[in-house]
Amino acid sequence: MALRQIRVDGDDILRKKCKVVKEMNERTETLIDDMLETMYDAQGVGLAAPQVGVLKRIVVIDVDYENPYENPYVMINPVILESDGEQCGDEGCLSIPGKIAEVTRPNRVVVKYQDREMKEVILEATELFARAICHELDHLEGILYKDVAEGPLRDADEAMYEDEE
Ligand code: NI
Asked: Which H or E run includes 122?
């Protein structure tokens, strides 16, 4: 496994549409392992393949980032089948370091994807997990959260002080 360089906003690759993964092979296995390592290293809750410069429909998510590798989700060719409810909250992205902004997302989604064995999985997710799925799937379409944010980008450090009071 190896850490990969995280592409940052301004890099054209983050704006491209990703391609469907047709089969699992050694190269893709390595990519997935590297994505997990890179996500945990950066203390993110999710990472999409284009963020490490690969235009494949693969995302990794682990909202329980305090316990790395315990329960990571690897979603290949993910599609949202259902979404309902609403949650509004701050979101950040490893490709837009140090910034956050408020984004409204569905509170519940049902997602269909293929796992590492290319087996189809249908999963229901709520709250932060649902938010992470929506955020990461947007990356596969070349969409960044700042495109869909309600408010302006804020400094993540300042936001922490706002919460203190
Ligand atoms: Ni992101």
From this structure: strand 120-126
Active site annotation includes 117: no
Residues in CB range of 138: below 8 A, 6 or more apart: 144, 145, 147, 148
For residue 162, report the distance from its CA to the centre of ligand 1, in Å: 23
Condensed to tens digits (0 to 9), the pLDDT of residues 63-80 reads: 987 888 998 999 999 999
For 51-65, write each residue's pLDDT tens digit. Answer: 999 999 999 999 987
Question: Is 6 inside any structural domain?
Answer: no
Say whether 35 sits in a helix, a strand or coil.
helix
Per annotation, catalytic residue among 82, 91, 127, 136: 136
Q: Could you tell me the CATH number of the domain that includes residue 96?
A: 3.90.45.10
CB proximity list for 10: less than 8 A, separation 6 or greater: none
Rounded CA-CA distance 96/154 in Å is 11
145: domain range? Answer: 12-164
Cα–ligand 1 centroid distance for 121 (angstroms): 23
Any idea what the Cα angle at residue 97 is, between residues 91 and 48, rounded to 5°?
70
Q: How many domains does the chain have?
A: 1
